[in-house]
Amino acid sequence: MTRIITITNQKGGVGKTTTAVHLAHGLALKGKKVLLVDLDAQAQAGIALHVPPADGAFYLLTMEVKRSATAFIREQMAEVRPNWQLLPASPRLSGVEHALPSPSVSWLAESLGRFEGAYDYVILDTAPTIGRLQVLAIWAADWVIIPAAPEPLSANSIQKVLRTMRSLKDEQAWQGGLFGILPTMYRERVREHATTLAEYRRHFGDALVLSPIHLAARLAECPAFGQTVFEHAPNDRAADEYRRLVNTVLKAR
């Protein structure tokens, strides 16, 4: 069975795309078949991997679930690493809500259903907004991961995502759930970070607050090389921390 994991936060600059890219690559390195879908009109996932913007995600959202359409969408995928394909985004996604062939909240899930069994994991990287596309991405997910900087203002953005999730459960009988909140860009020597992380754990519970990803220069360098930290600095602490996230996901399956 294919697991769909949505990486989302309405706040930008929290390591959302970094997390989506590293989770996808980490799972692929474990021998899992992975599709990363870039749902951000800024095409950040593709940029991080040196894949030019393209309309793959747009076609996924706008083409009906037919064999010919599925074959065409597959042609838009980039094989970025062994076991790992990317369906890239482009600026056309900025107005895609008006081109969706169905008003149903389940449309993206239905469209992704064409790939059921072809991948072990589908990772959805979303834009830093709360809009219809984010709602569709959450509905499609089995699990949602919310990357969040350990700052007081981040709590508000987390709550907005959680409210959307609760609304989908209460009003649309959504069957997915929160996999966890992932503290990113963490610095233990910054008192505010330690305090906020403790507050996350107190408020959400230890089980739903994942092990933090520390701020790392090597991680920030990766997009310049079109690499992940597993390639650029495999012995760096950031690589170990993302491996830990990958193993947590694999154990939950």
Radius of gyration: 17 Å
> Which regions are unreliable across 5 or more consecutive residues at pLDDT < 50?
none
| CATH uppermost class | Alpha Beta
User: What's the pLDDT, averaged over the residues?
Assistant: 94
Tell me the β content. Answer: 15-25%
What structural class results from the helix and strand content? alpha/beta
> Within the largest sheet, what's the order of strands?
3-4-2-5-1-6-7
- In the CATH hierarchy, the third-tier topology is known as Rossmann fold
**Secondary-structure arrangement, i.e. CATH architecture:** 3-Layer(aba) Sandwich
User: What would you call the shape?
Assistant: globular
Give the SSE map.
Layout: E1 3-7, H1 16-29, E2 34-39, H2 44-48, H3 56-62, H4 67-75, E3 78-81, E4 84-87, H5 107-112, E5 121-126, H6 132-140, E6 143-148, H7 154-172, E7 177-183, H8 191-204, H9 217-225, H10 229-232, H11 237-252
Parallel strand pairs: 1-5, 1-6, 2-4, 2-5, 6-7
Antiparallel strand pairs: 3-4
